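Re: the multi-chain job from yesterday

Posting the exact lines I submitted so nobody has to dig through the queue logs.
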Amino acid sequence: MLFFTQCFGAVLDLIHLRFQHYKAKRVFSAAGQLVCVVNPTHSLKYAPTRCAAAQTSVEQSILPPCHHHEAVHDPQLVPCTCPLYSCPWEGHLEVVVSHLRQTHRINILQGAEIVFLATDMHLPAPTDWIIMHSCLGHQFLLVLRKQEKYEGHPQFFATMMLIGTPTQADNFTYRLELNRNQRRLKWEATPRSVLECVDSVISDGDCLVLNTSLAQLFSDNGSLAIGIAITTSKVHNAEDEM
Amino acid sequence: MLFFTQCFGAVLDLIHLRFQHYKAKRVFSAAGQLVCVVNPTHSLKYAPTRCAAAQTSVEQSILPPCHHHEAVHDPQLVPCTCPLYSCPWEGHLEVVVSHLRQTHRINILQGAEIVFLATDMHLPAPTDWIIMHSCLGHQFLLVLRKQEKYEGHPQFFATMMLIGTPTQADNFTYRLELNRNQRRLKWEATPRSVLECVDSVISDGDCLVLNTSLAQLFSDNGSLAIGIAITTSKVHNAEDEM
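And the result, C-alpha cells for all chains:
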C-alpha cells in the first residue's frame, strides 16, 4: 500500500485508477501484472537547452551533438537527466534516481514486467509521459514523447534508458509491446544510457515510433497501454550483427 | 528448380541472389527459410486512378472511399487488384492470381515462413516492392511501399492482403518482422482483403510503418529483409476486443 501511495503520488484518483487498471489488464490478459497510470507533462524544455542541437530534423541522419559532459568539471559528476526540464543540478550517477524522484517527482515502479498506461494521448505536442522502472538491480527511465517533427503531424516516440553507463546498458534488452484491436506491435532493443541524451535517441528515430493513426488504433478511450519487459541480454551471436 | 525459375522470373541474377540469400539467412539465422529477392517497381499509378481518394492525408483519419465495385456490373466480378498499375481488367476472384502473375508479372512464393528481401531501398518515392505468397491454401499479396505522405519525408509502409473475401481474411494473422543491429520490430495483424484497396490501408497507416532512419537501421547494404509468417487466427477472446 505504501508502495502504491509512493508510486502514484498525491494526485491519485483511485476510482479512475481502478477503471484504467481493469482495462489495461484486459488488454494484456496477464493477471498480476503491475499497471502504472502515467499522466502527461507538457514539456517545458523546448527552448535553448543543452540539447538544442538534438531538435534538428532526423533526416539529417547525423547523431546530434549532445555534450552532457562539457560543462561538468568533475568527470564523476553527471548533469540532471530529466527529459522535461532544463535543470542546473549535477551529481554522481548513483544519486540521479533520488534527484529525479525528489526534484522532478518522477515516479518509480518495480517489477520485471509492467504496463505503462499513458493517459490523455490527445494533448497537443510537445508532451512527455515519464516513469522510472526498477528491475534486475537497476533503474530505467521510460519516456513516451508526443512531438511534431513535421509541423502539423505529431508522432509518438517511446524509448527506455538505463540510469547507468553505456557499458552497463549493453547488458540489457527492453521490449515495448502494444496489443489491441487484433493488432500487435513489438519493439525490442538495447537500452541507451541516460548519459546519452534522450532527445538524440528520439531525433534519430531509434525507438518505437507511432504515427497518430496507429496510436489511435492501439489506444482505448484516450489512454495507451504499453507492456514493458526488461531482460538481461543473451550473448550476441557475431553473425547477427552483420 | 522449376519453382525457382518461375518465382524469380527471367531477370534472375543468380550470383546476386546467392549473395543476398546468404545475407538474409544471416539476418534471420533460420536455415532452410525461403528467401525471395524482390526488386522495386516505380509506381505508375499515382495519377487519376480509381483509388485517388486514398491518397489524401491520413490525418483526416476517415477511411477513404475506394469503391472497387462501383464500375463492376456483374457482382461476381472484381477489378484488377494490382497496386502498381491502373488496369481495366475485371474477372472472378479465383482468377485474380493468374491475372497478377501473367499480366503484371508479380512473382509467387510458397511456404509458411519466408523472407522478403527488398532491394534498392534508396530509390525515390513512390516505389513498390510486391510479391504474392501462397500459404495455408490461400494466396496473399505483400506490398512494401515507399511513399511521401509529408513532402520530403519518405516513409515505408508494409502490409499483407488476402486474395479473397474479407470474411476469409478474418481467419488469418500475418506477422512481419525486422531484426538487425540488436533491434527487433514485429507487426502482427489480420490481413485485409484485396477487395479493400491497398492504398486505403496505407493511407490509414494501419500497417507496419517505418521512417527513413529506422529503415536504414534495419537495412543491410540497401536491402531490407522482412520475415513473414502467416498463421490461422486463434478464436478471439471477446475481452481482447475492448
